[in-house]
Amino acid sequence: MQYVPLHAKYTLPFSPAAAPCDERSTDDGIARVRNLLLSMRARSRRSHADNISIGINESVSCLMSSEVVFRTMTRARKGKGMDFLEPDTGSRILEKLRMQRADEKYCDIVLNVEGKVFKAHRNVLAACSPYFDTMCNSGLEEDKVDTAVATIECTSAEAMDEILNYMYTGKISINATNVESILRGADPFLMTALKEYCYQFMWQNMDASNVLAVRQLSDLYGFADLYGRSQQFIRNQFMQVIQHSMEDVLRLSYEDILELITDEKIRVEKEECIYDIVVQWVKFDLAFRKPLFPRLLPHVRMPHLGREFLMTIVEKEELVSAFGECRNMLAEAKHQTDTTRRSYCSDSPVLKPRKGRLTDVVVMIGGVSEQGPLADCFAYLINENRWSSLPPLPNELRFHATTIMNNCMYVAGGTSNQLTTSKVHCYDPITNCWNEVAYLQTPREYLSLVPCDGHLYALGGLRWDRVQQSVERYDPDADKWCCVSQMPTKRYNMQVVSVGNRYVYAIAGRDSSRRSTPIVERYDTKTDEWTSVAPIPTKDGLWECPVVEVYQGQIYVTDLSTKAYRLNVERNAWVEAQCKFARIPERTCFQYCAINRNVFIFGGWGERSNNSPISDACIFNQELGLWSNIAPPPASTLASACCFLQVPYEFLSENGT
After folding, report:
1. Beta bridge partners of 497
2. Which of 503-538 are b and which e, b meaning 16 or more Cβ less than 10 Å from the residue's Cβ?
3. Which of 377, 354, 190 is nearest to 271 (CA)?
4. How does DSSP assign 511-530, residue by residue?
5. Which residues pair with 505 in a beta bridge?
6. Which InterPro entries match (predicted)?
7. Strand 466-467 relative to strand 471-475: parallel, antiparallel, unpaired?
8. C-alpha dihedral over 346, 350, 353, 357, to 10 degrees?
9. What are the residue ranges spanned by the domains of the chain?
10. Which fold has domain 93-205?
11. Integer Cα distance of 475 and 525 in angstroms
12. CA within 20 to 30 Å of 243's CA: 6, 90, 127, 290, which one?
């Protein structure tokens, strides 16, 4: 028998499209299909040809499947419809439009920016920008032509290219170079999301090098909170601002520079900085700004410039000599330095320090007094010879360590409430408050703390009477401590200094046998390796408490009474240094702070102290070999810590002691 395809020989006896799809006709059609299928199956059973049987069985299966499909489709017509959603349709369409724009296909608008032509599609521009939507729907005759032409003057060609790509892709890369020009386009185009991206970029990337530009853009485009934040940054970090963006300062308007120098709380190290800024600002555009100099100089607190600065710098300045009122101000300032140099009782703001002036102080923290453990924090004003109180530590603390990094004071370890602690606190003088940071990995007391290469290093110490040799490094950005290579020798109560922003020197201290040691070891922060250095050549016995200072890149060590040495790094040897010694006031276990060859000494025990902490304080000038008493601290302490810090004058009130 010759094989004939079923679809050619057999056809369905009805057409779903032609027949009405009521319930009765549907049932009749299904019955007829069923009878036909049974008849075809019976024929296939009587056939002995395999090929015919296979072909018919396959066809029968297809027809039986048709029955199911037909029934399903029929029921679907009676029920609800089916919804289909193709994913990422919008993205695919935009990608197609982007490719069409790249090929200049179907473009119906031309943008002319700085002589450069950009072709685009009106519907895309109108969908992304209310500005273009209004322009394309303005009803003008030129908008009705096939290809409209528009001239854009609010931004640059490079920024327009970035903005168009953003419209077609939803992606844009904002950096310090293009953020201003993108803002100049996003604002008139009323693209709020793009403006928000520029705002976020400036918020997260504001620093001393760009804060003046950020403030200007924030004011221009209505970012009120960013403007306030930039103003506060300029006030608090003014010394960094003039260091990293002095040219931007010199380009400020008269109103802006006047606002800057009249700010009572601006954080400035010396009034000389304000004077220099005024002179440089005037000379930046001398022909136009010279008449403004007499209006700016009265806002400089000239009595605080210092007599030597007045005589050698101000008196020789041509701008001062050119105006009679400026010469009069100079004469009055010289008179003030002679009579009331540090008398700030006058109501005149010119005679008072700025509240934001960064004042040199020696800070004494914690310890033990006759009344018990202390959490107090006292600041000694070097130029005024008086004490003031700073916010206390969160808890009483003793046998701890302190140091300065990024003009913030860190206090680590020690003993608090009879327990050795791993807590670390940071005092920010700009905000005048303490903050808790990440804890040390190992609780320890009698440790040493030193900054180097943007990190803090905690070395040695005691933990439950066991001498430590481990070293931990603190990353302030990550707020995390990690262990680095440990010291070759277990020690505690060491003197540590950093040199060249790379090397940490661990000097003297006590070893595992609790004895004083002259050992000196050096840690390389780049290679994470320790090396031995020549020990201190103490011929007449070990020094109980050597005073160590880094001065002009050199390490000096002395016992303040007999010898002083300087480390020759190239020869790895100590060289005797010249120092005029005087008899040290008898005391032991004192705390000291060395600044520019001056050593401030606080607390300690003395033979005449009747088993009580010494209440007075003194300073030793190593160049003159002269001891001088200074104002006694508010509390007599042992086991405290001290360091040098700059604190805004407004936090150093005279009634704070």
Report:
1. 505
2. bbbbbbbbbeeeebbbbbbbbebeeeebeebeebeb
3. 354
4. -TTS-B---EEEEETTTTEE
5. 497, 522
6. BACK, BTB-kelch_protein, BTB/POZ_dom, Kelch-typ_b-propeller, Kelch_1, SKP1/BTB/POZ_sf
7. unpaired
8. 160
9. 6-74, 93-205, 252-356, 358-656
10. Potassium Channel Kv1.1; Chain A (3.30.710)
11. 13
12. 290
The pLDDT assigned to 349 comes to 55
Residue where the block lists tokens 């060289």: 575
Tokens found for residue 551: 């001065």
Rounded Cα distance between 210 and 231, Å, is 12
- Rounded to 5 degrees, φ, ψ at 499 are -135, 135
**Amino acid identity, residue 615?**
S
Q: How many whole angstroms separate alpha carbon 443 and alpha carbon 447?
A: 10
Tokens coding 600: 């401030």
Which residues make Cβ contacts (< 8 Å) with residue 240, sequence separation at least 6? 208
For the chain, residues with pLDDT lower than 70 are 1-79, 139-145, 339-351, 540-541, 583-585, 607-611, 655-657
Contact 275, 269 (CB under 8 A): no
CB proximity list for 164: less than 8 A, separation 6 or greater: 101, 111, 118, 120
How many Å from the N-terminal Cα to the C-terminal Cα in the chain?
Answer: 121
Strand partners, 401: 412
- Beta strands (DSSP E) in 96-248 are 109-113, 116-120, 148-152
- Rounded Cα distance between 3 and 59, Å, is 12
Domain 252-356 has CATH 3.40.50.720: no
Cα three-residue angle 122-125-127, rounded to 5 degrees: 105
Q: Environment class of residue 74 by beta-carbon count within 10 Å: exposed (0-12), middle (13-18) or buried (19+)?
A: middle
- Enter the tokens of residue 262: 């009249």
Q: How many CB atoms neighbour CB 561 within 10 A?
A: 12
Rounded to 5 degrees, what angle do the CA atoms 349, 352, 354 make? 90
Element (H, E) at 556: strand 554-558
- pLDDT at site 13: 39
Q: Is 544 buried (19+), middle (13-18) or exposed (0-12) by CB count in 10 A?
A: exposed
Q: What is the DSSP string of 447-490?
A: -EEEEETTEEEEE--EETTEE---EEEEETTTTEEEEEPPPSS-
10 Å Cβ neighbour count for 587?
20
Find the helix or strand (DSSP H, E) in which 364 lies. Answer: strand 358-365
Please report, for the chain, how many H helices and E strands are present, in that order: 20, 33
Find the helix or strand (DSSP H, E) in which 296 lies.
helix 293-296
**Which region holds residue 102: left if phi is over 0, alpha if psi is between -120 and 50, else beta?**
alpha
Q: What is the per-residue pLDDT for 131?
A: 93
So what's the pLDDT on residue 298? 95
Quote the pLDDT of residue 637.
Answer: 85
- Structure token pair of residue 62: 């297809």
In which region does residue 432 sit, left (phi positive, over 0), alpha (psi from -120 to 50) or beta (all else)?
Answer: left
